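User: I'm writing a short report section on ligand binding and want a predicted complex to refer to. Could you take this sequence and magnesium ion and write out the structure as tokens? A short remark afterwards would be nice.
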Amino acid sequence: MPEIAVLAGDYIGPEIMTAALKIFEAAQKVTQTTYTIKAYPFGGAAIDQTGSPLPEATLQGAKAADAVLLAAIGGPKWDQATERPEAGLLKLRKALNLFANIRPTKIPANLADASPLKREIAENTDFVIARELTSGIYFGQRYLKSEEAADTMFYSKTEIKRLLVTAFEMAQNRKKHVTVVDKANVLASSKLWRQVAQVVAMDYPEVTLDFEYVDAASMKIITQPTQFDVIATSNLFGDILSDEAASITGSIGTIASESKGVSGPNLYEPIHGSAPDIAGQGIANPISMINSVTMMLINTFQDTKTAGVIQQALDQTIAQGILTPDFGGTATTAVMTAAIINSIEKAA
Ligand code: ATP
Ligand code: MG
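Assistant: Sure. The structure tokens for the complex follow:
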């Protein structure tokens, strides 16, 4: 039986995780599938229970699972902790060998008005950013003196290749278009990215490959986002472009992401934080967590059936205007969850 390690985390983390798991359970009944859910303490909640943000049992449980589902961790309660919740997340990412972060940018059906883009552009925006996670300037050498400073940006061919293979594989199942975003007019590492991309592309004759400088790409994400399918890029550029891409959807409360492990489980999580400002009020938007579940079902378990049941019910609920306050609605998390489950049961 497929096993999922669930890390609910802190503040709104457990609120949206509970909602998403209830919906997932209802969908499993419809498709007659069974997933084993194992919950582990993680982040601030784990500090409170065990003194460590990543207890050994959590680490082993995550490593042994087929997928890891994470809500959000951290917040002001642990600002003074000796080991902060975020340190646990860094350790977990390292232990799982997560090398690529996949972030879809798609404006949910019926929510195009929340986007700052023109409606017809918003409705047709559907691209994915594949960001390299293990290397680049974030892991370079640091040099800081009072009069000068430097950070090195290193990339090996192996690191570039595995990210690009992931990007081409995704493109193959999407709109068959990869855009490598770089700064190859000045950076040596970008030149290597281009060379490796040309070679990887030969294995994917149906996929179109093009290159875009990061400055131009950052404009196009706003002006012509419908031109993109899969954007493949380095750690630094991916970090920046991912947040830019999130902003054109109009709500941080809907977007999920996948971090791919080299050999072990992938990790699925909303892109937002633990939102301490709204925690405990029962008004957190569960969509990002629900989308994390469907992304996991499709990408790790190839269970498009169960994902489809959830997706359809979510779309219907949104279409009925049952939305949390971040989308101008009046529904609580619980009301929205109940409406989605109701729609799942009716469709069955
Ligand atoms: P972090 O440093 O962990 O990213 P943050 O404070 O920078 O945290 P978030 O926790 O993502 O950012 O919250 C940013 C804003 O978005 C907050 O006002 C928060 O309430 C809101 N927000 C985030 N997620 C949701 C959600 N699921 N539903 C409703 N509002 C949300
Ligand atoms: Mg933040």
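A remark for your report: The chain has a mean pLDDT of 96. The longest strand covers residues 98-106.
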